[in-house]
Amino acid sequence: MALKTEEMVLNMGPQHPSTHGVLRLELKLEGEIINDVIPHIGYLHRCFEKHAEAMTYPQVIPYTDRLDYLASMYNEFGYALAIERLMGIEVPERVEYIRVIMGEFQRIASHLVALGTYGADIGAFTPFLFCFRDRERILHLFEITCGARLLYNYIWIGGLSHDLHPDFIRKSKEFIKDFRPNLKELNELLTYNQIFIDRTANVGILPAETAINYGISGPSLRGSGVKWDIRRNDPYSIYDKFDFEIPVGTGEKGTAGDCWDRYYVRIREMEESLKIIEQAIEQIPQGDVSSAIPRRVKPPAGQIYSRVETPRGELGYFIISDGSVNPQRVKVRAPSFVNLEVIGELCKGHMVADVIAILGSIDIVLGEIDR
Amino acid sequence: MKTAEEIFESLKTKFSEAVITLITDKPVEAFIEAAPMEIDKVCLYLRDEEGFEFNSLMNLSGVDDANGEKVKDENDNEIIKGGTLSVYYHLESTNLKHKITLKVSTDRENPEVASVEEIWRTADWHEREAYDMFGIKFLNHHNLIRILMPYDWDAGHPLRKDYQNPEFYKGMKVPY
Q1: Contacts of B133 in chain A (CB under 8 A)
Q2: How many CA atoms lie within 13 A of A218 on its CB side?
C-alpha cells in the first residue's frame, strides 16, 4: 500500500540563481513530484508604461533598453519601428541594413547567454564560459559602434545615433569566421552530451496547440514544431530580402516540444543569424544614417500595434497617440511575460530538479516581464 | 484571409447589437467596437467559426481614455469623474494569416468586462495586468488578483491618468 503524503508548498526564489532574475515560484509538491507551479512576479516592476506617458517619444527609447536587457537593440528596434509606422516615416536603406545587422548580432548574443546559463543551471559550467567569451566579442562590436556594451540608445526614431565604425565590417567578418567553429565546439561540448540530453529530452513537453493557445512565441513556440517567425510571417524592415531558414523542433532526441528541442532551435537560429549578417554586410549601401530623423516627433492621433521578433519571441508595442508630444498609452507585449505563463502546465508531473531545466528552456528575462 | 470590413459584416449579422461600429480612419488601425458584456461570445465565435479561426490572442491591453470631467477632490488633487476605460484585443489567425483588433469601452466608475480567459489561456495574465493597472473587473476570471503590484496594494490602480502616488505603503515611506 502506498504511503499517504500531504501536499507540500516550497518557495523557489526570489533569490535563486537559476531563476535568472528576481522571480518566485511557488511549488506544490507531492513528495518529489510537482502538482502545480505558481509564478509570482513583479519584483522588478518599475512602472515603465507610466513613465513613458510622461516622456516625449524619443525620450522613451532609453527606457525600452531596460526592458529586455539582454536584447536591448531589439527593444529599440521595435519601438522605433512602431513610431515610424505611426508617423509614416521612410527610413534610408543603410539604416535598415544596420538595424538588421545589429538585431541579428543581438540575437546571437542573447542566445549565447540563454544557452550558456542553461548549461550552467543543469550543471555544465564550461559551456557557460565558452558562450560568454564569444558574446564579449559581439558586445565589443556594439561598443565601438555606439559606446555602450549593454544599454545602447542606438536606434532612434527615423535613424541611428551613429554610423558604423570603420572597423566594424572587418571585425564582424572575423567574428563570423571564428564563431562557426566555436558553435561546432559548443555542440560537441553540450548539445550532444549524453548527460545533457538525459536531463532535457522528454522533459517539459509543450504541444503545438497548447503553445498557440497560451500565446507562446519565439524559439519556445518553434521548439514545438510550429514554423512561425514574424521576420517571415509578418515581415518588417528588410527581412524579406534575406535568405534564411526557420528552424523548428522535430523531437530528434525525444518528443517534439521538449526542452532539448527548444534549446536546439536556439543553436540553429544562431547559424541562420550569421547567414543574415553575411548577406547584409555584402549588400549594405552607403548613405546618411540621420537624414530621416524628425526634428519633432509628433505623431497624428491614432493607435498602432507593431511587433518584431526578438530573441525571445513576439515583442509588441501598442501605442496610442493623442496628437501631442507625449504618448497617451504605451503597452509592451513582452514575450517573456506571456511565455512564463505556461510553466505550470509544463512542470506538472515532473521532479523538482526538472523545474530548473524547464524554466531555463523558455529563457525569460525578468526585466521585461515586470517592466 | 479576410479584411476588417468582411469580419465586421459577418459579426454584425450574427450579433447585431453586441457589435457596435467599425472604425477605419487612418492612421488608426481598423478596429471593431463591441459591447463589454458580449465580448466573450464574439471572441468565441471568431475563434471557432470556419473562415476566421483566430486561434491566437497577440495582446490584450487596458487603456484609460481620460475622456471624463476633470474635477478637484478635497485634497486639491485633480481626479477624473465619469468617462470610460477601454480594453483592446489584438487577434490573429496563424493559419489564415489575418488580424483584427477589437475594442470594448466600459464605465470608469464601475468597469466590468466579460473575461476571455476560457477562450485563450494567454488572456489570464493579460487580464490580471489590466485589472492591476486600471481596475477593470473581468467577470468569470478564475483568479483576478494583482500581478505586478504587491498583492495588498491599496492605493488604487497606477495606470489611471488620475492616480495619486501614495506617501506611505504599510507605514513605509514610498521614495519617488
Answers
A1: 49
A2: 27
Distance CA A191, CA A197 (A): 7
Task: Report strand pairing: B78-81 vs B69-72.
Answer: antiparallel
Residues in chain A: 371
Are A25 and A348 within 8 A, CB to CB? no
Would you say A67 and A53 are in contact if contact means Cβ atoms under 8 Å apart?
Answer: no
Pairing of strands A327-333, B19-23: unpaired
From CA B12, how far away is CA B20, in angstroms rounded?
8
A65: helix, coil or strand? helix
Query: Is the C-alpha dihedral spanning A84, A87, A92, A93 positive or negative?
Result: positive
Q: Which residue of A has its CA nearest to B118?
A: A213
What is the residue-level pLDDT of chain A in tens, covering all 371 positions? 677 777 888 888 787 766 677 888 888 888 888 888 999 988 888 888 888 888 899 999 999 988 888 889 989 999 999 999 888 888 888 999 999 999 999 999 999 998 988 888 888 888 889 999 999 999 999 999 888 888 888 999 988 888 888 889 999 999 999 999 999 988 888 888 888 888 888 888 888 888 888 889 889 899 888 888 888 888 888 888 888 889 988 888 888 888 898 899 999 999 999 999 999 998 888 888 888 888 888 888 888 888 899 998 899 999 988 888 889 889 999 999 999 888 888 888 888 888 888 888 888 888 888 88
C-alpha cell at B111: 468597469
When CB atoms are compared, the residue of B57, B124, B149 closest to A45 is B149
CA distance A120 to B47: 41
Q: Give the HSE-up count for residue A344: Cα atoms under 13 Å, Cβ half-sphere.
A: 18
Chain A environment of B150 (Cβ under 8 Å): 42
Report yes or no: A267 at the B interface, CB cutoff 8 Å. Answer: no
DSSP secondary structure string for all residues of A6-56: --EEEEE-SB-GGGSSB-EEEEEEETTEEEEEEEE--TT---HHHHHHHS-
Least CB-CB distance to B59: which of A49, A333, A371?
Answer: A333
Q: Which residue of A has its CA nearest to B159?
A: A50
Distance from CA of A364 to the nearest CA of B (A): 16
Residues of B with CB below 8 A from A329's CB?
61, 63-64
Q: Which residues are within 8 A (CB) of B109 and not within 5 positions of it... i.e. 6 or more apart?
A: B82
Identify the three-state secondary structure at position B129: helix
Q: What cell was used for A119?
A: 548549461
Interface test with chain A among B60, B84, B121, B176, by most A beta carbons within 10 Å: B121
Q: How many CB atoms lie within 10 A of CB A176?
A: 17
